[in-house]
Design goal:
Distance between the termini: 55 Å
Number of helices: 15
CATH topology of the largest domain: FAD/NAD(P)-binding domain
Structural class: alpha+beta
Radius of gyration: 23 Å
Number of domains: 3
CATH class of the largest domain: Alpha Beta
CATH superfamily of the largest domain: FAD/NAD(P)-binding domain
Helix content: 25-40%
Shape: globular
Largest sheet: 7 strands, mixed
Strand content: 15-25%
Number of strands: 23
Length: 496
């Protein structure tokens, strides 16, 4: 069933990364017969702390034909090969969840099965030894290789990134309207028809994209779309963020350091570092959080620490009537695995794939919501796993996380890996077999068995196979310059 008229006028409410990503993508990729307007107010700040990305981020840039070196220079960008998780399994323990693949598996079994048997026989090195991205991260190296190319993402200045997107969007015909929205008008059927600005200006549209952040002006305040709360699984509800001057060369990975009632991030840019502490207000006050963060940072403060309040969960509909919510307006998952910008981009791509040129089709809307819901839930479960699978009992926060009930799908995944070392990839799960394996091993799950196909290899053959896997990693590392050398040669920022 088609509802509404042909879509000609698209109104994006809110700027920031979400708004300008949507506007830039629509204008460049499908905008030939569309009028795209973005409404934002200089008086309303953006969250601006989404400074770490994952590899699919680069797919969007390829579609938008963004020049990588130019972009990285403008956003103080550095390379990200993974995330270091410190104190998560236990205080003093650390591991890296890296991009790419670890070792070589076969049609029936992932590499972890070969590694498990080799470990049992006493000649396997640490699992991390066989992951090129992980070993490059630890060595502080990176380069763009023709063969054996590494999987990578970026650290970036979120505010500068929004400016880059804005420039591109406006070049492609997007109209920016400055102003604060004071009223939203709806048709008799309930669709949104126009927004009214403080100046009296009226902006009419056929399709509205809500990028208004936590306020969720259209999706929540206007349409009253229900919110599904996940606080019982992810109890952290606040973050405090601050920027500091860099005191050393940037490392090619993000640091996530578990604290008494939450975790701290460190995101290295070319001349500064993004820092923050995600915490649960039930166990830690804002003053305690501030003191904890300031006691565990390096370099002079560039900004004053600011507290952000949030509620983990998602809208039960990401597309309701003629409105699509992106970013914080659609839901929030803490940035433990750097998925915030990814979810924005996935929402944009799905909208482009199902764009309702001839009017909104209910089946498209249903499918859009199904896919976004699934992706949010998979990321949710992956994040829950970090908290739940832990040996920490040193605070009430960690004891609660360790002992809490978890979603059935996650419990099944953990049981499956614990029993047999198996990981099956699911549709719309951004985290593939290597990610689940690295984190489950890193958090302390030891599989009880391996796939019997490994026994088709004799001990000597398996020993040779494992040596070859290690040699492949060594070959990659030998070709790489240091991360700092790469930055200086490829994309030095103008402010450096």
């Amino acid at each position: 069933m088609v509802s509404g008229a042909k879509i000609e006028n698209v109104v994006v409410v809110g700027g920031g990364t979400a708004g300008w990503t949507a506007a830039a993508a629509i204008a460049r990729l499908i905008g030939a017969n569309l009028n795209v307007v973005l409404v934002e107010s200089n008086a309303i700040g953006t969250v601006g702390v989404g400074e770490s990305t994952i590899p699919p981020f680069r797919t969007m840039h390829r579609l938008l034909k963004v020049d990588e070196a130019d972009f990285l220079a403008k956003v103080q960008g550095t390379i990200k090969l993974g995330i270091s998780f410190e104190n998560w399994r236990s205080v003093g323990h650390d591991y890296i969840h890296s991009f790419g693949f670890t070792g070589q598996g076969c049609w029936a079994a992932g590499f972890q099965h070969f590694w498990l048997k080799a470990k049992q026989l006493g000649f396997a090195e640490e699992f991390s030894r066989y992951a090129p991205e992980l070993m490059a991260a630890k060595a502080g190296k990176f380069g763009l290789l023709q063969q054996d190319a590494l999987s990578y993402a970026y650290h970036l200045d979120a505010t500068a990134y929004a400016k880059v997107l804005r420039q591109q969007a406006e070049q492609d015909g997007v109209t920016r309207v400055e102003g604060k929205i004071i009223d939203v008008q709806q048709t008799e059927s309930g669709d949104i028809s126009e927004v009214v600005l403080e100046s009296g200006q009226v902006v009419k549209g056929d399709l509205f994209i809500d990028c208004s952040g936590f306020v969720s002006l259209l999706m929540d305040k206007t349409l009253g779309t229900e919110f599904e709360d996940w606080t019982h699984w992810l109890p952290c509800d606040r973050a405090i963020a601050v920027q500091t001057e860099a005191v050393s060369e940037p490392i090619p990975y993000t640091r996530s350091i578990a604290r008494e009632s939450g975790w701290q991030w460190r995101i290295p840019l070319q001349t500064r570092v993004g820092n923050g502490l995600v915490y649960c207000s039930e166990f830690m006050s804002d003053d305690e959080a501030r003191n904890t963060l300031l006691a565990n940072i390096e370099g002079e403060l560039i900004t004053e620490p600011r507290v952000l309040r949030f509620r983990t969960g998602q809208r039960t509909q990401h597309w309701n009537r003629n409105c699509v919510a992106l970013g914080l307006a659609a839901g929030f998952l803490e940035p433990l695995e750097s998925t915030s910008i990814h979810l924005i981009q996935r929402g944009v791509i799905r909208l482009l794939q199902m764009f309702p040129y001839g009017g909104i089709v209910e089946s498209d809307r249903t499918e859009f919501n199904r896919q976004m819901d699934a992706e949010f839930r998979f990321i949710r479960d992956f994040i829950i796993m970090h908290y739940h699978v832990t040996e920490r009992t040193d605070s009430e926060f960690w004891r609660r996380c360790r002992n809490m009930d978890i979603p059935d799908d996650l419990k099944h995944r953990l049981d499956l890996f614990r029993d047999s070392g198996r990981v099956f990839e699911a549709e719309f799960d951004i985290f593939r077999e290597n990610s689940w394996t690295q984190v489950m091993l890193g958090q302390g799950i030891e599989p009880q068995s391996y796939h019997p196909i490994v026994d088709m290899m004799g001990e000597q053959e398996l020993r040779q196979f494992m040596q070859i896997q290690g040699q492949k990693v060594d070959r990659v590392l030998k070709q790489l310059p240091t991360h700092q050398e790469f930055i200086e040669r490829y994309c030095p920022t103008s402010t450096a």
